[in-house]
Write a sequence for this structure.
């Protein structure tokens, strides 16, 4: 099934003849369907908002792993439904416009019961920008796993480390780890200073390691570790 194609069937019209009860009923039915589509789009937008994502938020980590801090399957299904409904909405608006033109073009329109005017549709964009943390050095990501023989392992990263600085990326500019991904791509084969918080027996300590992203180390990605957003 092509989610980019509208699923709204063509509306029944009566050419350019005088409006009949059937045409008026068809237009009113289209308006009702348009209202229902708008309501569902709003509800689906709330689903994305509840996961703190939008239609463009990455569902994978910078190293290619599915994110484990969100319900990826639900978000993908919701996005697919939103795409289809947006196309349906555009098709419905086109059909409504054509139907209204036919009604207005009829000489008998003034004597008939007018179709209630529809307010102009405005899409409400959901603001999912994360609230910035107060401190630049606040932890923003967690190292979940580290592969043996990987650049991350060689640098000294450990599972459980909380990332505070990753090169130029910190708590106020990580863009839900998108900026971290760019930092890795821009520094292949070059050293990146990584500041992490690590829990020790006597409390948490800060550790700075030198990480060199590279391909061909024998595993997936350029780091060999799984990092997720806190």
């Amino acid at each position: 099934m092509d989610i980019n194609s509208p699923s709204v069937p063509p509306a029944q019209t009566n050419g350019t003849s005088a409006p009949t009860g059937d045409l008026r009923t068809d237009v009113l039915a289209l308006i009702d369907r348009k209202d229902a589509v708008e309501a569902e789009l709003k509800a689906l937008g709330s689903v994305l908002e509840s996961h703190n994502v939008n239609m463009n938020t990455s569902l994978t980590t910078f190293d290619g792993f599915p994110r484990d801090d969100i319900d990826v399957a639900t978000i993908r299904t919701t996005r697919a439904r939103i795409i289809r409904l947006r196309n349906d909405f555009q098709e419905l608006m086109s059909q409504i416009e054509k139907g209204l033109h036919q009604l207005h073009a009829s000489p008998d329109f003034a004597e008939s019961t007018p179709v209630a005017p529809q307010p102009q549709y405005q899409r409400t964009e959901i603001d999912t920008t994360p609230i910035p943390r107060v401190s630049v050095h606040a932890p923003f990501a967690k190292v979940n796993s580290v592969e043996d023989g990987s650049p991350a392992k060689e640098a000294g990263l450990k599972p459980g480390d909380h990332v505070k600085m990753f090169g130029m990326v910190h708590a106020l500019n990580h863009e839900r780890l998108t900026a971290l991904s760019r930092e890795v791509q821009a520094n292949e084969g070059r050293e990146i200073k990584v500041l992490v918080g690590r829990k020790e027996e006597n409390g948490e300590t800060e550790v700075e390691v030198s990480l060199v992203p590279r391909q061909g180390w024998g595993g997936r990605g350029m780091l060999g570790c799984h990092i997720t957003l806190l």
